[in-house]
């Protein structure tokens, strides 16, 4: 679904009704955000992955990133 159409529609409605509606939108937006996060978690939980392999490759990638950054920083200090 294209997210820009509801976004633009909301902007137009908000612009047209900005002086007429005095209700706070904080609570409905918080509830909608919590539902969004919940359903994203449900969808992520449905994905079948090998968590141990993913964790190990993430650690290796992080270590190589740190070591590469330290190497570049040491090259900059020596010059």
UniProtKB/TrEMBL annotation:
Sequence intervals crossing the membrane: 54-77
Keywords: Membrane, Transmembrane, Transmembrane helix
InterPro entries found in the cross-reference section: LysO (IPR005642)
Organism superkingdom: Archaea
Molecular function GO labels: L-lysine efflux transmembrane transporter activity
One Pfam family from the record: Lys_export
Protein's recorded name: LysO family transporter
